[in-house]
Amino acid sequence: MDTLYRRWLILKMLPRHGSSITTSQIAERLDTEIDARTIRSIQRDLVELERHFPITFVQEGRTFHWCWNEGWQFTFPVMDLHTALTFHLVREYITSLLPTSSVRFLEPFFQNAEEILAEYNELTLAHWPDKIRVVSRKVKITQPSIMKGVTETVYNAVLMGKQIKASYRKKDDEAAQEFSVLHPLGLVFVEGLIYLIATEGNNLIPLRFLLHRIVEVMLLEKSATIPEGFTLQGYIESGEFIYPVMKVENIRLKALFQRKASAHLHEIPITGKVRLKEFDDDRVLLEAEVLVNRELRCWLRGFGAEVEVLAPEGLREEFKSTVERLKIMYR
Amino acid sequence: MDTLYRRWLILKMLPRHGSSITTSQIAERLDTEIDARTIRSIQRDLVELERHFPITFVQEGRTFHWCWNEGWQFTFPVMDLHTALTFHLVREYITSLLPTSSVRFLEPFFQNAEEILAEYNELTLAHWPDKIRVVSRKVKITQPSIMKGVTETVYNAVLMGKQIKASYRKKDDEAAQEFSVLHPLGLVFVEGLIYLIATEGNNLIPLRFLLHRIVEVMLLEKSATIPEGFTLQGYIESGEFIYPVMKVENIRLKALFQRKASAHLHEIPITGKVRLKEFDDDRVLLEAEVLVNRELRCWLRGFGAEVEVLAPEGLREEFKSTVERLKIMYR
DNA sequence: ACTAATGCGTCACAAAATGACGGATCGATG
DNA sequence: CATCGATCCGTCATTTTGTGACGCATTAGT
After folding, report:
1. Residue B331 in contact with residue A328, Cβ under 8 Å?
2. What is the pTM of this model?
3. Which nucleotide is nearest to A2 (CA to C1')?
4. Which residues of B touch A266 (CB under 8 A)?
5. Nucleic chain C contacts, protein chain B, residues 40-69, CB cut-off 7 A
6. Residue B302's pLDDT is what?
7. For labelling, which of A32, A46, B116, B248 has a CA lying 20 to 30 Å from the CA of B307?
8. With 90 as the cut, is the pLDDT of residue A90 above it?
9. Angle made by CA atoms A258, A261, A267, in degrees to the nearest 5
């Protein structure tokens, strides 16, 4: 029985397509586990495993480099219908939120899920794709594409704390600019965009780089230096970021909605504490503790004339003046 | 070597905690695969497998019911750092988009990912949680919670095409109403809400039920009847749904943005075909082929006075009249 | 009380895994 | 170009493991 377990461990050690492991590396790592056999046995194991599992090797000189076939993904326990369905839904949502280069890592899981759903479909003739739909409220956006290899390198640099060298296009139509030493500080994900926060050379001011504008990137040997006292959270909150969090304190929002608009409020509270009061004139008063930020403004403005902001006074004034400017604009 | 493969197949057959399989069922299903042994062997296999794998059995009389332990999830190949990181990001995004009862199915995967990330953290002291952040533009929403078991039952009913019996609260504060025969037609996911579309009794008009308002639900034996010609896609598009898709045809949108607002346009095109033209007066003209729907309106209105809609004429008129109404409102 | 289904212990035999050894191949080195 | 080390592969005797058959024990259902 040791044999089965050892082979299981070997399967666990095999990396996915792209990386690889040699027989002697397996032997070495197996020694640290409870279990050990001759290298010969491991060679035999791999040949045997190849018969039943989607694994292959690449021969380099005299050495074999083993890995899983591309795109394969087993899960134990095997995905049941609900899990597969959830993966299907996640895929629908996530492709517009995360860049393709990230979603790619989940592709095998999605494939796996689709297979299970397809199999179920065949078995029962239920044809579920006709029965389940995701409706998105958002304007469909298409993802800017990130150069191959950039995501991996930048991820690695951030995670391992290494310096990088990169060429970066500040605007889509501009020529790329060379940054020979960047110290990565962190990554920020905003609606399908990835920002790399980094300092350049000895300059301590953090800069922002969009990953899809990075033309080329190279991992350097040297470790990155993080400016004293820097935290990513602090940086985001400091308002340096694209959507500055203006004030962190809560305000007491009062807004009057048309009843037809208020359907959404009933169903999606803004935060935990929300009070709704209905009036006879088909309007609904919302009271809530919220953060005033760009998102809130966008959300409220999105209702157009279906909402009237009553309080706080400052926000009402802001909306008033926006209307004034709009009035002039559309005159 | 057949042994390892057979045991692998057995592991594949074991369902996750909640369901279960007996020794004889395994033997039966194993017969359909290429491989067959005595039941005695399978009994021995399971005992052996139990030594190394997180599986257990529940004894019921003389029969053993086997399944995987709760919460366990293996993946082959084992998740690498990038995949684990992607799962981490997906979790951050998805919990506000899908109801908890659905996300629960992915929990083991997320756990798995977190473990790998934690392990990596320990190994390298990189402390990645300080280096990667997801910033959401949206107003934070809290999920309405769905009663335990409701999701599963409704999913099953939809997928297997079975009738259900349910009690439903039309409004949060109202008493529940009994629906003794519902024919499920489909599920629609909208921003963290799940709608069940179903007909009641012999009535052919589809009704909408919010899953989190379903107090109790029971699967019935009888098959559901789907009204002739009904398709979920058609139903959604017909405008019967919460956000009617007003017109399906594309229009040619022209809008003038303030430069500071236009930063977002540069980065997130609305659809494939987008043209941007910059002017000297710090304004940017956007031209694009888009669908006019509620989402587009919300999105445009969200920019407040930072955008002027130029074309099509109809949309411009609409914005004009909205401004008129706002003007009166804030007077 | 009987029967069928299921699990378990044991034993002899069959099948496999193992370690040791030597030969073959290939890249690196000087 | 000879040499060395690393690696893989074939083979064989030995050890370990897996297997089927059989009988007994236990339990649910009739």
Report:
1. no
2. 0.77
3. D17
4. 171-172
5. 40, 43, 47, 62-64
6. 80
7. B248
8. yes
9. 125
